[in-house]
Each structure stands twice: as structure tokens, then as C-alpha cells.
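S.,

Sequence below, as promised.
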Amino acid sequence: MEGVEKIRSALGIRKGAVGVKYSDELPPVEPSGGRHAVCSAILEAAAGKVIMLSGETCACPGGKAHIGLTEARTIPLKMLVEGEKLWSDVTSVQNSFWRAAPNR
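The prediction came back faster than expected:
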């Protein structure tokens, strides 16, 4: 962890590192309750919370499909780039979705 702290300090990163685990097992500590969007769950995890996303606890339909909790429908590429500003261009969105679930 010392190396992580040096990198955070050098880059001026204020939040902690976030780990993601795909599993059907419960985490060793009690996860935060309620429903979460994927993006906000990552920020909450960076603040120290343990978030467990499932089909029932994920509040964001797009995020739910992106992380593989539901089947993806037509992807609103332009909205993800220009509206939500999650990617810099349409090609990046397509590559991200393809790599996340190559069998789609």
C-alpha cells in the first residue's frame, strides 16, 4: 500500500483505489444497502464503502447492461459521448462494450 500512497500523492489523487470483483459470493463485510448507479457506486467505493451491485440493486439500466447484469439493447452511443460524456468518441464506446462482453 505504500507504493499506492506514493502514486496518489505524486498525482494529486484524492480518492482511494477501487477494486471490482465479479462474484456470486457475499463480501466479507456488510455491503452498503440501497440501490446504486454504477458510476456513483465506484465513487462511493473510493470513499470506503463496499457496494454489491446486482440486477436488483443496480439503479442504472445502461450500467446494468454494461457490466453484464442484463442483456444490452441498442446502445445510445451519441448520448454516451455527447450527453453523459463517459467516452471521448463513439469508437471508444464500441470498443469498451465489445471488450466487456465479446459474445454480444
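The chain has five helices and no strands.

Coffee later?
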